[in-house]
Design brief:
The structure is a homodimer. Chain A is α/β, with parallel strands linked by helices. Helix content of chain A is 38%, strand content 16%. The two termini of chain A are 21 Å apart.
Chain lengths: 304, 304
């Protein structure tokens, strides 16, 4: 275990992870969990890649929203659309996660899934983070890549459970994280099958089917996975339900919460990030049995 | 390949399956498909286990419906509940799949998922098929077990996409078919997370979240799997959308439709099974590019 998780600093968090994995995989041990039940879930925005000052998907939406507003002028009066059209990041940051994501989901209504993925892929191939200057797809966290690999090497099946759009995250999850589409759960719009003699496509509708945040994360884990995870990792109050649902099962469990406290290497924010605050999490993590990870203290390296 | 699929008679269908698998797995061949994209989907009722004269889950509901009707007397006026309470199979068979399943979903509203699974498991451990006398769980088809194994041995990931309740099928899918819960897609009721300081459970609500039949099967495949399958197997008109969605992708595809034409070893029914008819499928399979499997002609053995 000495060479494992090289980008995690030697300390309590790294030790806790290594001990947990050792315990649930020790054949005949009290904490043993069969491989089929080794389910790990990770939030995406802020847990696997940078989410500050705003979600990657919102930057993608910025590039598409003009087209939509031209089609539906009434949208210009909605606060999130107005802020997007004016590229007013401050106004967007003052809205709730749901308000901010609404235009992100609506802007692609009418596309079929293949068209949406192609549009998202093309944008992600070029788009750069405004603060770090690197591709958004390069703003993924090296310690988390190592952790997901480490879990998989020990028989875990790793899922992403994101508040972001399920199809947006699927566009990159396999390539960036090694997580196949069927192991990505996220917010989704309803779809409609369109069958012709020669084609069959799923058309994305504007109506939200699931907004995968807070309690809905646990409900969607039950719906999509059908097993209670034994390991969960998040970074905001929106992840607490998922972490607590994980911990409430029998046997050994581990739930971790990343604190963005590293303004030098990444960004420092928590309670004041209104889109997705870490507030209850800071106050009650210990009471809930959740372990806090400090980016500054626990990670030797941030980006991959 | 001579020893493969021993319960499939040597004939066109077995040959077609073996050739398809050989083609998509032949490294460097024109039909090659990478393992990650080898997604196979199977319907459950009538495709993996017997569904005639009525769905297994409906027999389960029969055993539970009295309890519910005592709680909610108004339900007695609904045709499906009335027929269930009177054990009137003929009346049930004249209803649509949705009407028949409605009480099956409603009867367990208020239970949490763990409680529901325990109730279903206990019932399935004892309950026997009215015609065959054997356990319902022994009314699974041997040729399909061999086929699922064969596909998995060739790098396929096998999913079940059922009109039945997702939690009901998950109760047995891993043990009977080797399909883990996260690879079962089905009809579902909405759930609600209930968090207390000590527990976190998902409570089943009465409201249907998804009725996984016809077009909805394709929509749910897109939602849960996020890839278009390359192989699909069904047995009723309710599966046609899934089969056509599968065939509409690029490259080699195979879609099969089981015809229950074996009254001697199992049951012979198609157009007149109103709950889940095979009607359009009989008339248009060839036009859609779907291959028909005859239980009588193509299977050397039926039950496992």
């Amino acid at each position: 275990m000495t060479g494992a998780l090289p980008s995690w600093n030697d300390g309590d968090r790294r030790k806790e992870i290594l001990e947990f994995v050792a315990s649930v995989t020790r054949d005949g041990g009290a904490g043993y969990v069969p491989p089929a039940e080794r389910i790990a879930v990770f939030d995406n925005d802020g847990t696997l890649w940078a989410e500050y000052p705003l979600y990657v998907q919102i930057y993608f939406t910025l590039s598409e929203v003009e087209r939509l507003a031209a089609l539906e002028p009434a949208l210009r009066d909605k606060p999130a659309f107005k802020a997007l059209l004016e590229h007013d990041l401050k106004a967007l940051q003052a809205l709730s996660k749901r308000e901010v994501f609404e235009p992100a989901f609506a802007v692609h209504a009418g596309m079929n899934i293949e068209q949406f993925r192609a549009a998202a892929s093309a944008w992600l191939a070029e788009a750069r983070h405004p603060k770090f200057g690197r591709l958004f797809t390069a703003c993924i966290y090296q310690p988390q890549l190592e952790l997901m690999d480490y879990l998989r090497e020990h028989g875990f099946k790793v899922f992403i459970v994101t508040g972001g759009g399920i199809e947006f995250v699927r566009t990159v999850a396999e390539r960036l994280y090694g997580v196949p589409p069927e192991q990505v759960i996220g917010s989704s719009t309803r779809g409609r099958l369109e069958l012709t003699p020669d084609t069959a496509v799923i058309r994305k509708l504007a109506e939200v089917g699931s907004f995968d945040d807070r309690d809905e994360k646990a409900v969607n884990i039950a719906l999509h996975i059908g097993r209670r995870p034994i390991f969960a990792f998040g970074n905001s109050d929106g992840d607490l339900a998922m972490l607590r649902y994980t911990l409430a099962g029998e046997g050994e469990r581990l739930a971790l919460l990343l604190h963005h406290d590293d303004g030098e290497r990444e960004s420092a924010y928590d309670r004041q990030f209104l889109v997705s605050p870490l507030n209850e999490g800071l106050d009650r993590a210990a009471e809930y049995g959740i372990s806090q990870v400090s980016m500054k203290r626990d990670w030797g390296r941030v980006f991959a």
